[in-house]
Structures are given as structure tokens and as C-alpha cells.
Amino acid sequence: DQQVKQNSPSLSVQEGRISILNCDYTNSMFDYFLWYKKYPAEGPTFLISISSIKDKNEDGRFTVFLNKSAKHLSLHIVPSQPGDSAVYFCAANISNQFYFGTGTSLTVIP
Amino acid sequence: EPEVTQTPSHQVTQMGQEVILRCVPISNHLYFYWYRQILGQKVEFLVSFYNNEISEKSEIFDDQFSVERPDGSNFTLKIRSTKLEDSAMYFCASRAVRGINSPLHFGNGTRLTVT
């Protein structure tokens, strides 16, 4: 039962360039999508979210894009900074349940 | 900024022992959750709690698990008889309201090691 998938376990990007993290989902009833960032030995930290009625939400260097027809979500970080190096989880919500992807480990190279 | 706090940060126990993991959710939040993450795997839902009762639970949350909100601030997860496969990071989370634009806020987790 893997309703949310992150197919890239890792990504490396040069500092200053764009980081694009991808997420796919299977349940068309999801109505709220989120990205979390996780450092080692810490809990996931909420980063940005988007409702299913929108296709884009921007917050500073972070933009989330939602393509409902493709059931695809992406997170763009621009410009990427070394402090962005972490594991990023996408999550999808329906009712009171959240489903998480397996995470993508982002490394931003100075 | 208010945060979810969890204690202890690391718990080592012997197989068959009972453990209680503690959490203090954000004070004005209404929905509480436990998730776990086995090393190298995804974050898995265990249980959600609202209005002093379990609202949803996963297949993982069997009779060995229980949750309680004993005093209006703490939210606990009890594992009655731990097994080796219970070794994982356990995350508590809370949410202000149900619906969109209300994200989960996580604690820093308790690393449970069952030997």
C-alpha cells in the first residue's frame, strides 16, 4: 500500500542552482499535499503545502507544484543552499490521515 | 514557536518489556498522532487520537499498542510487550484542526531499541 512515492532516494545539486524533488501519488481523493524536511536526529519539519484546488504555492525559495491529472507533486528550491541538505518527505492527506513518501536525501554542494 | 516535545529521546529495552513513550503536543492542538520510522524505511502511521479516543489506527497498531491522554497535556504510546521488530523512531505529531491548511507538527522522536 504505497499511495505516495518518491522514486529518487537521493539528489545532489550545486549551491545556487535549483533543486527539484518529485513525488507521485495514486489516490485521486487526496485533497492536501505537504513537504517536510528532516535533519538527522530530528523530527520532520513542515515546509510548505498545497491544497488540491491549486496548482502552485510559493513561499520564499520554496515552490510546490501540483499536477492533478498526472498525480504528481514537486518541490522546487531556488537558489539551493548548503543548509538545505536534508531528507525531504512529501505527504498527502485525506480525511484525518497523512501518507508519506520514502524520502529524498538532498545534498547541496558548496 | 510552540513545538511538540517527546521524551525520552532514546529508550533501550529488553524484548518482552513494556515501554511508554511520552509526548506533549502543542497546547491548542486537537488532533494527535503517533508515527514510526524503521531505519531506512518510510514514516508509517500508527494511530490518530481526537476527543479522548482513537479516531483511526493502522494494521501496525495491534493489541500490543495503546494510547492515552492521561492529564490533558501528555499523550502517551504504550507498547505492552516489546518485540525486536518494534525497534524504530517513534514520532508524535499534533494538528490544530482537521482539514486543509492544517499541517502535522512533529516532535523530535524517541529512538526505541529493543534488544
What do these coordinates show?
The complex is a heterodimer of chains A (110) and B (115). Chain A is mostly beta strands. Chain A is globular. Chain A is 0% helix and 57% strand. Chain A has no helices and 11 strands. In chain B, strands 2, 4, 5, 6, 9, 10 and 11 form a 7-stranded mixed beta sheet that branches. Chain B has a 4-stranded antiparallel beta sheet with strand order 1-3-8-7, with no helix packed on it. The termini of chain B are far apart. Chain B contains no helices and 11 strands. Chain B has 115 residues and is mainly beta. Chain B is 0% helix and 50% strand. Chain B has strands at 5-7, 10-13, 19-24, 31-37, 43-50, 53-57, 65-68, 75-79, 88-95, 105-106, 110-114. Chain A binds chain B through residues 31-32, 34, 36, 41-46, 49, 51-52, 89, 91, 93, 95-103, and chain B through 4, 6, 31, 33, 35, 41-45, 48, 50, 55-56, 91, 93, 98-101, 103-109.
Total number of β-strand segments of chain B? 11
Please report the distance between the alpha carbons of the first and last residues of chain B.
Answer: 37 Å
Largest interface: A-B, 25 and 27 residues
Mean pLDDT of chain A: 95
Kindly state the percentage of residues in helix of chain B. under 10%
- Going by helix content, strand content and strand pairing, the class of chain B is mainly beta
List keywords for this structure.
heterodimer; A: 110 residues; mainly beta; 6-stranded mixed beta sheet; 5-stranded antiparallel beta sheet; 11 strands; B: 115 residues; 7-stranded mixed beta sheet; 4-stranded antiparallel beta sheet; 0% helix; globular
Q: What's the short version?
A:
The complex is a heterodimer of chains A (110) and B (115). Chain A is an all-beta fold and 110 residues long.
Topology overview:
The complex is a heterodimer of chains A (110) and B (115).
Chain A lengths: L3 E2 L4 E5 L4 E7 L6 E7 L6 E7 L4 E4 L2 E6 L4 E6 L8 E9 L2 E4 L3 E6 L1
Parallel strand pairs in A: 2-11
Antiparallel strand pairs in A: 1-3, 3-8, 4-5, 4-9, 6-7, 7-8, 9-10, 9-11
Chain B lengths: L4 E3 L2 E4 L5 E6 L6 E7 L5 E8 L2 E5 L7 E4 L6 E5 L8 E8 L9 E2 L3 E5 L1
Parallel strand pairs in B: 2-11
Antiparallel strand pairs in B: 1-3, 3-8, 4-5, 4-9, 5-6, 7-8, 9-10, 9-11
